[in-house]
Amino acid sequence: MTKKSFKCGFVGIAGRPNVGKSTLMNHLIGQKIAITSGKPQTTRSRIQTVYTDESCQIIFLDTPGIHKAKNRLGEYMDEVALAVLSEVDVILWLVEPSDFSGEGEKFIARQLKLAGKPVILVMNKIDTVDRKKLPRFMDLYRSLYPFDEIVPVSALRNINTESVLEAIKARLPEGHAFYDEDTVTDQTMRQIAGEIIREKALRCLNEEVPHGIAVEISSMKERKKRKSAAPGETRPEDVPYEDPDTIWDIEANLITEKDSHKGIIIGKGGSMLKKIGTQARRGIEEMTGAQVNLKLFVKVRPDWRDNPQLMRTLGYDLKSRR
Ligand SMILES: Nc1nc2c(ncn2[C@@H]2O[C@H](COP(=O)(O)OP(=O)(O)OP(=O)(O)O)[C@@H](O)[C@H]2O)c(=O)[nH]1
Ligand SMILES: [Mg+2]
């Protein structure tokens, strides 16, 4: 009997903003690593995660939504997304089920042709439409690009997502695993904590305010709980944390570009900042499995989204990514 060969490769997840790229990646790897929200341009950087089973290892690269950039941050995001297309073995183009296709779709189709990789069209959010319409939507996309395969799914409702893995596996090169099976992501705990805070700000705030927010973790320290609790400190036996002996002390700045936005982020009597802080603390506690003390501050950095130096200090730098 011949031994089945192992497959390993990189898969880029690309598409317009808000189509569900990060939701699908989190679902496929079975863990929440990339943040998600109902607002476009949630993902700003390339986020790598690793899926490993007995027959293959898939290294996913989630990317920012490709869009018409209105500032330098937008240009950076588009550059990150387009660079991934040439670095991977297989591309997933995620779209929503609709018969609308415009300049954005044509642009992406042209970039895919340039990349010359196998492309799987993943039509996501099929839970939102009448299934009878799907063949028509697929025909429209087929007229834009000669896909290797088209897979209709709902990442949120877990419909047909296994087929995405099968379609990828069929096109992965043979090879050994690059990472050990415990590796899940290239993101540090500090980066994930910052992203969780940004996610809660995105979800709590409206209009243009959340898009101008960046998060800077100024301090993140782990300490062991004392045997007898200090005032305000919970004793290990009080809370069912996975790691009951540890506390994370985190201080973070919510960076905004306008003075007028600072007041909105803080809210009446500090209520909005408190809401964001409470949700973020819970999210970080889920990630660390330990108690978290989170202190949030709001700082104004005028027009940081058009300032390459400020962008660099906030982690949006193409050079540091490579
Ligand atoms: N109904 C429905 N909603 C979905 C599905 N997949 C994702 N969503 C929702 O779509 C919104 C956007 O999801 P994200 O995963 O953040 O989308 P994205 O493509 O990563 O967005 P950007 O990072 O901004 O490019 C969120 O509110 C998700 O809950 C789906 O299958 N069905
Ligand atoms: Mg995303």
What layout of secondary structure does this protein have?
Elements: E1 7-15, H1 21-29, E2 47-52, E3 56-62, H2 72-87, E4 90-95, H3 103-115, E5 119-123, H4 134-142, E6 149-152, H5 161-169, H6 189-204, E7 214-224, E8 246-256, H7 259-266, H8 271-288, E9 291-300, H9 308-313, H10 318-321
Parallel strand pairs: 1-3, 1-4, 4-5, 5-6, 8-9
Antiparallel strand pairs: 2-3, 7-8
Helix pairs in contact: 6-8
Bound molecules: guanosine-5'-triphosphate (GTP) and magnesium ion (MG).
In short:
This protein is 34% helix and 21% strand.
Biggest sheet statistics: 6 strands, mixed
CATH top level of the largest domain is: Alpha Beta
The proportion of residues in beta strands is 15-25%
Shape: globular
Structure explained in plain terms:
This protein has a 6-stranded mixed sheet with strand order 2-3-1-4-5-6, with helices on both faces. Strands 7-8-9 form a 3-stranded mixed sheet. The model has no long low-confidence stretch (mean pLDDT 94). It has 322 residues and is of the alpha/beta class. It binds guanosine-5'-triphosphate and magnesium ion. The site of magnesium ion (MG) has 5 residues, from helix 1.
Key words describing this protein structure:
GMP Synthetase, Chain A, domain 3; binds guanosine-5'-triphosphate; binds magnesium ion; 2 domains; alpha/beta; 9 strands; globular; Rossmann fold; six-stranded mixed sheet; 322 residues
